[in-house]
Amino acid sequence: MKILYSNDELKTCIRRLGAEIGKDYRGKDLLVIGLLKGCVVFMSHLLVEIEGVEAEIDFMTISSYKHGTRSEDFKFVQDLDSEVKGRDVLIMEDIIDTGRTLAFTQAHLRNLGANSVATAVLVYKKSNLEVPIEEPKYVGFSYEDKEFIVGFGFDYGGKYRNLSNVYQLEEKDYKIYLSA
Ligand code: IMP
Ligand code: MG
Questions:
Q1: Which bound ligand lies closest to the C-alpha atom of 66?
Q2: Does residue 73 carry a catalytic annotation?
Q3: Exposure string (b/e) for 55-68, b if CB count within 10 Å is 16 or more?
């Protein structure tokens, strides 16, 4: 594995996003919705960088039946507790890959009658998009490579979420995992 974004770079980037969000949502009724589990590390860092806003938070877990590394056929594992109607909603998501998870979530929140729906994402694999999405307003990093990334909330087979940096997997890492 090799470091892609160091912990310092991640924190600097998240501070910038938090300042923007704080500015944009001052005086608004902000409901932050995290998509579990990947959002956890990004969201907890980002939330405390948003100043001057009385945000509420909630979580959704959406599971997809994976075909290889693709996500399709979504179902709710855990839906929201909060009232969404009329609220300004900000989705926090770890990564946009094909865009399917985000497209599904955005449509769901629109259907629930949100006043506005925006998205903050740590890593945007823009060249992998397969479905139309509402463009994320707050983007940490744009990522153009094909390799899977892990750490700082990102997992591979459920592991590595605790790493403090974001790493790019290399050929030998896939082999280690498969033979473990
Ligand atoms: P999408 O629905 O295809 O946009 O995929 C979103 C989900 O795929 C994310 O929430 C991640 O769980 C997973 N994912 C996609 N690429 C990566 C990666 O490089 N590392 C870790 N997870 C990834
Ligand atoms: Mg995930």
A1: 1
A2: no
A3: beebbbebeeeeee
**Distance separating alpha carbons of residues 43 and 57, to the nearest angstrom:** 10
pTM (two decimals): 0.92
Q: Which of 97, 145, 155, 173 is catalytic?
A: 97
Residue pLDDT tens, the chain, 180 long = 999 999 999 999 999 999 999 999 999 999 999 999 999 999 999 999 999 999 999 999 998 766 555 566 777 888 888 899 999 999 999 999 999 999 999 999 999 999 999 999 999 999 999 999 999 999 999 999 989 999 999 999 999 999 999 999 998 887 766 655
79, 58 Cβ separation under 8 angstroms: no
Residue 120: strand, helix, or coil: strand
Signed CA dihedral, 43, 38, 104, 97: sign only: positive
CA of 101 to the centre of ligand 2 (A): 9
